[in-house]
User: Fold this.
Amino acid sequence: MLASDLNNPEFVGATNPDSALAVTFRWDKRLNEFRSKEEGRPIYDWMDWIHIQVPGNQLTDINRPVESRDKLRFPIQWARYQAAKEGGTVVGVGTPLEQWQYEVAGGGRVWYAISDADSTVWITKASARHPNETK
Assistant:
């Protein structure tokens, strides 16, 4: 499907095929084989990763470092990830909520947002170890 198809009112049922994908971004590490070999111990580089799944298709599971085109292709998911990473506002469907974090035992973190309208606390992310997002 072409982008022009989405803007053509004569094209019945036009949808963006990417809207069916389950896309998440995360901050994770990857083994740096060159530096690890040089120093004789595992050395990891932290970077943004993307995980793309096609619902109902277990054979298509993309998990790799983020490329600049991913940010353009999935702008809503990227914006949500950036907001969560920076501890800012959670951009969801509906009312934006300010995001907070709480340190738990052992340096772990719990990110949460509070909805005053319906007295709900939303857990947006949890990590058992110190994530680099807060450094």
Observations:
- The first strand starts at residue 22 and ends at 31.
- The mean pLDDT is 79.
